[in-house]
Request: fold
Amino acid sequence: MSTSGGVGRSETSGGDWLMATLVAIGLACVYWWPLLLGGGLVGGDTYPYFLPQKQLLAEEFAAGRIPLWHDRTALGYPLLAESQGAVFYPFTQVLYRVCDAHAAYHVNLLIHYVLAALFAWRFARNQGLPQPTALFVAMVFVYGWFPARSSLEWSIVGGVWFPLCLWLTDRLIRRPTFFRLMQLSAALGCHLLAGHFTLAFITQLTCLAWSLMSGSDRTVGLVERPGGSPWAAWRMRLRPLGSTSLALVLALLLASVQLLPTLELQRSSQRDGQRDSHGKVFNPGYGHLPPVYVTQLLASWWYWHTPELIQTRAMLQTPLQSPADTNAVEAHFYVGLLPFGLCLCLLNSAVRQRVAPGIRRWWLLLTILSTLYAFGWLVPLFRHLPGFGFFMGPGRYTIVGTMGLSLIAGACLEVLLRRRSRGMRLLVVMSVAGLTFVDLQWSSRVVSDAVVVSNPPWQSLGESWLGRELRRADERFPVRVLAPGPNVANLFGVSSVPQYLGLGPAAYFGESFQLPGPDGKSPRPYPDPQLEQRLRGLAVTHVLTTDPIPVPATSLELVGAGPDEFLNRVWGRGGAPCFLYQFRDPPARIELEPQQPRAKVQMMERTAGSLTVQIEADRPGQLVVRDLNMPGWEVTVERQVESAPVGTNESADEAAQGRQSTVEPGDFGRVVAIPAGRSVVKWHYQPKSVWYGAILSSGTGLCLLLFQVVSVWRHRLDRRRA
Reply:
């Protein structure tokens, strides 16, 4: 095995790429075989979080619109700014235009598993590992960290860029060129466009750390060491860090179309230091790895990763853990018993001396540091540094440790087999890999809170009687349903409360938006007058329950009851009935205030990000829409003067001018003044942050392409002159 600066590099041929691609596809097919047969994931955040977003994405793309706003979750929220919709992510733009939401969601997952294994293999080759061992490393990394998090789409969609960015960083350090700088910038930018920036932030930190370590290590043959002044030596050592930092800055500019809206939302979100209704501030320590739970590396299948231990959450009763909450999915850190046993071989001095210094030194250090941060101990200190306080889930830093342990295991395995024949080495690697794959497969399926079912609930969405009733009502007036299981009722195509959002408007986390469902043991009517007033103020028209309301308020009437083909399968309720109630006098989502008996309010068009209403009013008033008022909503009022009533004292010029609402952003209502007579009011969600971001992203991309074209042209011109 050749080494270069302690991080050996092996050249790859077209045949190597072909073999790695086939292995990556084969592993994905074996692990996710039920998906290939038409199955689908159920559990965790799949139906409450991701599919409601993807459904609206597909519908908006089909209508030729950019889905900037989600109008079904609660009173709406900025879908692009929330980031997990990944609106401008290349795979999103393609798959959700050609497939239905459910198929696109799972095809996207499969593609990213294949790419993650391929990129991890390529980075392992760049660390000097030969083909079989590099494939083993890729398998351990991908199927050790990602499948346990299968209910978290962002883990694989974002995690696929982690090994790719490391590989491109390594290439840039070894031989800096403008083209390689562009490649790394594009990869880091795509990572940001994928949304949910935790893994993007971890990737950026790891790439910067790898650059600093590579420049600081005298054994690394990446840059030529000068023999001059100490300043020249330091400058040469910091050059790799500077190149990577420049690539990161360019990536931030390339992803501005995603980042600027998210920064705008963050300033008015629950992550801006505001307290929720329970007096709690957003805690970035949630999702840590309890220190004792790290013993899962060797006590997995026989102790920690048993169903009983997972269900009892016994890891939370271990000493030295952070006071924040966590769960087995966020705290999962396992590479398989055989790979971890290989890592322990590093304790042997003979083995350790033959492992490439870059792996035994720097990747071991990165593994230790990332694991320490995953414990959550340092979060109270680091949360004051830029970036760290915005993200929760320190346990996600184990992706760095998983990569480190995978590389160490592969390097130790290669040392142990160094004197064996090629055939014997291949046989041993394949045997160890096969046993490890089975080990990882079993462990991750026990830990994961999502499972693959052959007949997913999505296929029963059209058979839902609840969906039919709600859509039928939505044709008469805008429906908003109070339902258990936040966001799931969005899949019926209607608005529902309460919400489930990771990065959401702060107004949704305050006391005024706490909407308790019925208590099956309470003898008092539900909803009580105070709650009913709040529900009507939010334009809630229906109440969905899984048990009958013992004493429904006189304002409620039962629409229907019975098992629902869709919801029962999502919630695993068998044949238990669902109950749908409706207010006898449903509150209007669009109202004219003060009320005018002869006024007419007619909805002309309603999409996710726009609303057009025609009003005939006897006198001036205010039009109120019971949706979330956020920066970016623009409103115009077009008066049709010919229908204005005679005798109005309001001038035509004054009446025709649309006046913006005085309601502050975050209130549950958008308000605009309207004149007497017939008017058309148009709301449209057009946040300036999106357009500023689009200008920055496209401008940076065009400049980089122009510089590359000029660079190639000059290179060819120099060759002709030579």
User: Anything to note?
Assistant: The chain has three domains: 19-224+240-270+289-450, 459-576, 590-686. The first helix runs from residue 14 to 31. Confidence is low (pLDDT under 50) at residues 1-8, 218-226, 274-279, 643-666. The chain is about 45% helix and 10% strand.
